[in-house]
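User: Quick sanity check before I run a bigger batch. Here is a single chain. Can you write out its predicted 3D structure?
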Amino acid sequence: MANLVAHKLRAQNRNSSHQDIKDEAKSLVESYMSVNPLKQTIELSDYYQDINTILENAFDTPLSFQLARQGFLEAIRTYNRKHNTYLDEPVVPILAERDTLNIGYEWFVQGSQVSLAVQDMIEIWQRKRRFSNSDLIESAIFCSIVYGGINDIAVLKSLYHWMLGSRDVYRLDFPKMKAQRPFKA
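Assistant: Done. Predicted structure follows.
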């Protein structure tokens, strides 16, 4: 329970800091617009470029710059409403995102149960002498979930269908080796 509360608190702090960055950017844009009011002779793209340069200098990480551009967008929307104008809205950059963590929060909370399930499967595999094709498929899917972190049902189904697709599967049977005598020097 305490872990869940801490997780929510971290998310709340992160959202608060993101909003602070947007608000700071919005105030920078509004102060620039009050010092340098828009005129008919000013090209809007040059005006936006000046604001963009201010934001680039103030916010140096990709995430903070993206949040600052969202604040810039909010400032322009507020300006449009307040002055009943239709200035073009600035584009907010989209950051390339990493893949989401496939292992959910529950895996960390219930880690001991996952560990016990893995130990049970390893013991089952060690006792078996021969594995059928279905045993091999089951173990491949199990390992994909536990060791690969795949828990998306669509991905698991496509993996399953790919394994059952029309392809040749070869099974290698190695000859049993005789017990070797210890090496004597």
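DSSP finds seven helices and no strands in the chain.

User: Great, the batch can go ahead then.
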